[in-house]
């Protein structure tokens, strides 16, 4: 059973993002090596520009993750006493005018760094 259509329907994802995520997520799992717009276009039928445009718009990752956890709890695949934690990756940045530059917690060195 494919859970992706159920998940996207429950999260009330707009139609254009529904089509994009339906194409993106299976391709994402099958790509070896680096993940970027060029590799997504190589392994799917869509153009590289399509992936770049879609990645600039906000995707409802939080809503999708929340509904997935709720589905897993309802199906008894996940016990609700556990806490799911995600540690975002740290990407160092250089320059003073770089977009998104700020202090972020880098858990592997246990301190905040500029990035």
Distance between the termini: 41 Å
Query: Share of helix among residues?
Result: 40-55%
Order of strands side by side in the largest beta sheet? 1-2
Provide the β-strand percentage band: 5-15%
Overall residue-averaged pLDDT value:
80
Report on the biggest sheet: 2 strands, antiparallel
N-to-C SSE string, H for helix and E for strand = HHHHHEE
- Principal-axis shape: globular
Number of domains: 2
Rg result: 17 Å
Number of H- or I-type helical stretches: 5
Q: Give the number of DSSP strands.
A: 2
The secondary structure category is: mainly alpha
**Uncertain ranges:** none
Walk me through the structure:
This protein is mostly helical and 115 residues long. The protein has two domains: 71 residues, no CATH class; 31 residues, no CATH class. The chain is built from five helices and two strands; from the N terminus they run αααααββ. Strands 1-2 form a two-stranded antiparallel ribbon. α3 packs across α4. The radius of gyration is 17 Å and the shape is globular. The chain starts with a helix and ends with a strand.
Indicate the topology.
Elements: H1 4-10, H2 15-30, H3 37-43, H4 48-56, H5 61-74, E1 103-106, E2 111-114
Antiparallel strand pairs: 1-2
Helix pairs in contact: 3-4
Descriptive key words:
single chain, 115 residues, mainly alpha, 2 domains, two-stranded antiparallel sheet, 5 helices, 2 strands, 46% helix, 7% strand
Brief synopsis:
With 115 residues, the protein is mostly helical. 46% of the residues lie in helices and 7% in strands. The chain is built from five helices and two strands.
